[in-house]
Structures are given as structure tokens and as C-alpha cells.
Design goal:
This protein has 229 residues and is mainly α. The protein contains nine helices and no strands. Helix content is 83%, strand content 0%.
Length: 229
């Protein structure tokens, strides 16, 4: 019974955050089958990510900077970006800017959920430790996904150099935010809480702004108003 309780506690934060960002899609909700597919895909990339990270650790060592920005953030965000670009970007269901956020958070939270389950069973877990992980790494992955998805959405509905710029930002900015988060956790073992909490609040503030901005330019908003009126 304890195993099921720990498993439920490890899975619940990722599903709750995915539901939150899914329901923030105000004008044209994505099919659950597609969102679920991306969540499962995010879970499946855990193994190749671990293999690549292990190889890079043997090659680069484990200095805080290399681990934070290359081995952790660089590898994880690259795989998420790769999946989004090759599976979702040209899909017919990707028909408004906010869809980028939905699909990116689905991939990110699929990855974060499996990571959380592995942590829960690899380390002695308490309610407090699982709560901290829900508030920090799991929600962190969701917010890195929001950044990636926001710029992926802008790239989808732009052309030429501007589209390429936004696609690059969808790749680089999540690595930067993720890398800073990991570097702070690695470098501030005793005082990390005083830095990470404001950092996470900043990420949430920016994430909500991105959500609002993406919804505000939905091509379906006028249709929604006409139906409502």
C-alpha cells in the first residue's frame, strides 16, 4: 500500500500542473489524445537522456557549470525541443500560439514525472521531500516548458528570419533558465532556499505572462467573442 501512496504522490504534481496549463487554453482546447501522447513521449525520452548525460559526465566531469548548463539543462531541453519540433510543430492540431505551451508543458511534465518517480523510489522519501520536489523541480520543468512553448508558438506563426529567431529562442532560453536553476542549487547548498524561492516566483510570473500573451493572439478569440455575444 505504501508503494502505491508514494507512486501517487510522485505522479500527482505533474498531472496537476499539466491540467492547469491545459485548462488555461481559453479558445481552442487541444485533443486529450494528442496531449497525452506528448506526455508519454516526454516520459519515454528519460532513458536516452540518462544515457547521454552519463556519457557527458564521463567526458566533461561534474563541475557545477558544466553539469548545470550542458549535462542537465542542455541535454534535457534539447531532447524536449527536438520532440516538439519534429512531432508537433507541423501538426495540424498546432493551430494557435498557445498550443505550443500546451504541448511543451506536456513533454516537460512527462519527463519530470518519471524523474520524480525515480527519485521517490531511489531516495528515502517523505511527504515534505515530495512536496519540495513538486514545488521546485517538477514545477520548474513545467515553466521551462512554458518558455519553450511560447516561443515555439511565435515561431509557428511567423515567417523567415523572425521564425528562425523565435525557434532559436525556444531552444536557448529554456536552457538558460534551467541552467541557472541547477547552478543555483549546486552552488548554494546552505542558502539555496533564499535564492530559489524568489527565482521560482520570477519564473511563475513570466510563465503566467507568456500564457496570457499567447492566449491574447489566438486566431480563435474573435470567433469566441462572436459566439459569446
Amino acid at each position: 500500500m505504501l508503494i502505491f501512496s508514494v507512486l501517487a504522490a510522485a505522479i500527482a504534481p505533474g498531472l496537476a500542473l499539466l491540467a492547469y496549463f491545459y485548462w488555461k487554453d481559453r479558445y481552442d482546447t487541444e485533443p486529450l489524445s494528442m496531449v497525452s501522447k506528448m506526455f508519454v513521449t516526454g516520459a519515454l525520452i528519460v532513458l536516452p537522456i540518462m544515457i547521454v548525460q552519463r556519457g557527458l559526465m564521463m567526458w566533461l566531469g561534474e563541475s557545477p557549470f558544466a553539469f548545470s548548463f550542458v549535462i542537465s539543462a542542455g541535454v534535457e531541453e534539447f531532447f524536449k525541443w527536438f520532440v516538439l519540433y519534429h512531432i508537433v510543430f507541423n501538426h495540424t492540431e498546432f493551430d494557435e500560439p498557445y498550443d505550443g505551451i500546451v504541448y511543451a508543458t506536456a513533454v516537460s511534465l512527462g519527463f519530470a514525472t518519471i524523474e520524480n518517480v525515480m527519485y521517490a523510489f531511489a531516495e528515502p522519501s517523505t511527504f515534505g521531500s515530495l512536496l519540495v520536489r513538486a514545488l521546485l523541480p517538477v514545477s520548474g520543468h513545467a515553466l521551462f516548458g512554458v518558455v519553450m512553448g511560447y516561443f515555439m508558438g511565435k515561431a509557428k506563426f511567423s515567417k523567415g528570419k523572425q521564425a528562425r529567431l523565435f525557434q532559436s529562442m525556444a531552444f536557448v532560453l529554456p536552457i538558460a533558465w534551467h541552467g541557472i536553476y541547477d547552478f543555483l542549487m549546486q552552488s548554494l547548498p546552505r542558502t539555496w532556499m533564499w535564492i530559489i524561492v524568489p527565482f521560482m516566483l520570477l519564473l511563475w510570473f513570466r510563465g503566467i505572462r507568456y500564457v496570457q500573451s499567447a492566449n491574447a493572439v489566438s486566431p480563435f478569440r474573435l470567433m469566441h467573442r462572436e459566439e459569446g455575444g
